[in-house]
Design a protein that fits this description.
The protein is built from 23 helices and four strands. The protein is mainly α. It is globular and about 75 Å long.
Length: 521
């Protein structure tokens, strides 16, 4: 018991070190455009007269992603980039606590569980890669998925289960079902992993004839979507829910609307490897995890059966495989998708190390621990020697010119709409969104939902009456959007802007038209 307490305090100290190391390297400028998306949602919710509707519709179909930021806002923290990054670190640290507890529920000792966690700790504390630093939906998603894995292990595979005859209450199963049902509201990408957890839970309950528990699990799983559908239906906006929460992400992941990469290329081993090893800030630990898994399988998998030990291994391997599917499915080359991988890789290694030891595996286990330690130490040393503070964006001076003009022509409660993809201006100005999305690529990129997006845009513009409309397409300070995507090439948008807005400034950034700022007449 004394050793367990010592290890626990050591873990607390390491997590504190992770937080301080990351906090020392933060920036007040945008580290990654996705962070701006979620901060823009927080600003809009905080200044909304209808916060629930705004929360469900102005958060890119991922309302749970902004919940930790809203909690920080309620505690008095401003919607800034350092606060968002700090919230992201806290989410990851909570994930580590749950994962550590999960490993301890298996037959791993506290000390061995901590060793397995070291690559995660060193990577989180020392990375300076922008896709790792930015607050994104992966932080909340991985936290929720880890909690689901903990629940599966606790219910059916913890080491003291054979000696404990404890019936879990219906509240456990109902709450677990609700948690799994909520995964889609953190990120649509979570659905495959959530289904794996649900399927293995259902199988365990079926073989144990836990029919009532299974019913509560299913009821809980459907409950969040039923409640949200009722809410939208009561407002006469049921189509809005399905367009923004389902069809948009269906086209994103299962069509060539956003990525022209053929299906067979999306799942190629070469593409999976290139995503995993793209960033030097995590390359060593990814290599260590993959090698440790390979050694683990060579040492432990001797027979194929569905006994209790093999069911747990099958669950861990299936969960990891489906995670690879989820990050590759859309065909987009975003390295922050790979943030889904560290947790299931660590969990699978923990499962392999907890399996009954044959003589060959007993000797190979030391090799696995050695691989983990070397990769953790090597990654930490490399990152600390190479780490530099994030630089300001190339056009930061032009950004500040734009911000100065917007602030001179608005009040803090006025709305802003950006025609383009530069969400950071909502944070720099502190103005809420006048359109339910901080970016408008869903309108000017070819899409099956184009007409729906135009209708929503005009409705939001009419309702919110944003004081400033800014067209950044074709400018150098915009992320996505060319000259042919400027608003005047879309007649319904052009007519609305011409009727209600007048050009007040044109900021030169070296492009033909620069950033054009319009004010409501």
């Amino acid at each position: 018991m004394h050793k367990i307490k010592t290890v626990n305090w050591l873990l607390v100290g390491l997590m504190l070190g992770v937080f301080l190391l990351r906090w020392s390297n933060m920036t007040h400028r945008e580290p990654n455009i996705d962070t701006s998306t979620w901060l823009a949602g927080v600003i809009s919710i905080d200044k909304s007269s209808d916060p629930i509707w705004t929360w469900l519709n102005y958060t890119d179909g991922r309302p749970l992603t902004v919940v930790p930021l809203l909690i920080a806002s309620a505690l008095g923290f401003e919607a800034t980039y350092p606060v968002a990054e700090g919230v992201g670190i806290i989410c990851w640290l909570l994930t580590l606590i749950i994962l550590y507890n999960t490993l301890c529920l298996l037959s791993l000792s506290a000390r061995r569980a901590l060793v397995v966690m070291l690559p995660l700790l060193t990577w989180l504390g020392t990375t300076a890669y922008h896709d790792h630093l930015a607050y994104n939906s992966e932080a909340v998603s991985v936290l929720m998925l880890t909690a689901g894995i903990w629940a599966y292990v606790y219910a059916f595979h913890r080491r003291d289960l054979p000696t404990v005859n404890r019936q879990l209450s219906f509240m456990f199963w109902l709450g677990l079902g609700i948690g799994l049902g909520l995964l889609v509201y953190a990120k649509f990408q979570n659905v495959p992993m959530g289904l794996v957890i649900a399927a293995f839970l259902a199988y365990e309950l079926i073989i144990k004839k836990g029919w009532k528990s299974l019913c509560w699990l299913v009821v809980g799983g459907f409950m969040p979507t039923v409640v949200v559908n009722v809410y939208f239906a009561m407002r006469g906006e049921l189509d809005t829910f399905w367009n923004n929460y389902f069809w948009y992400y269906f086209y994103y992941g299962y069509s060539d609307e956003f990525s022209k990469l053929p299906i067979w290329k999306r799942f190629s081993p070469w593409r999976a490897g290139s995503l995993m090893w793209q960033s030097y800030a995590i390359r060593f630990v990814f290599g260590g995890w993959c090698l440790a898994v390979l050694v683990g399988f060579l040492g432990t998998v001797k027979k194929v059966s569905l006994d209790r030990s093999n069911r747990l291994l099958l669950f861990a391997a299936t969960f990891l495989s489906v995670t690879f599917y989820a990050i590759l499915q859309s065909g987009n080359p975003y390295t922050h998708y790979t943030l889904f991988l560290p947790m299931p890789l660590t969990f699978l290694i923990g499962v392999l190390l907890s399996r009954p030891s044959a003589s060959q595996w007993s000797s190979l286990k030391n090799w696995v621990y050695g691989i983990i330690l070397v990769s953790a130490i090597g990654q930490g040393i490399f990152n600390l020697t190479k780490r530099q503070p994030l630089e300001r964006l190339r056009y930061d001076e032009i950004d500040q010119q734009v911000v100065k003009i917007i602030k001179a022509n608005t009040q803090p409660t006025d709305h802003l709409v950006i025609w383009g993809y530069a969400d950071r201006f909502y944070i720099y100005t502190g103005l809420p969104m006048g359109y339910r999305s901080p970016y408008t690529i869903g309108i000017y990129w070819p899409s099956a939902l184009h007409d729906t997006r135009v209708k929503d845009f005009l409705a939001d513009m009419s309702q919110n009456q944003p004081v400033i409309f800014m067209d950044l397409n074709g400018s150098l300070i915009n992320t996505e959007g060319k000259t042919e995507h400027q608003h005047e090439y879309f007649p319904p948008i052009a007519n609305f802007v011409k009727q209600h807005y007048q050009l007040i400034a044109q900021v030169n950034d070296g492009s033909p038209k620069g950033a054009r700022i319009y004010k409501r007449k």
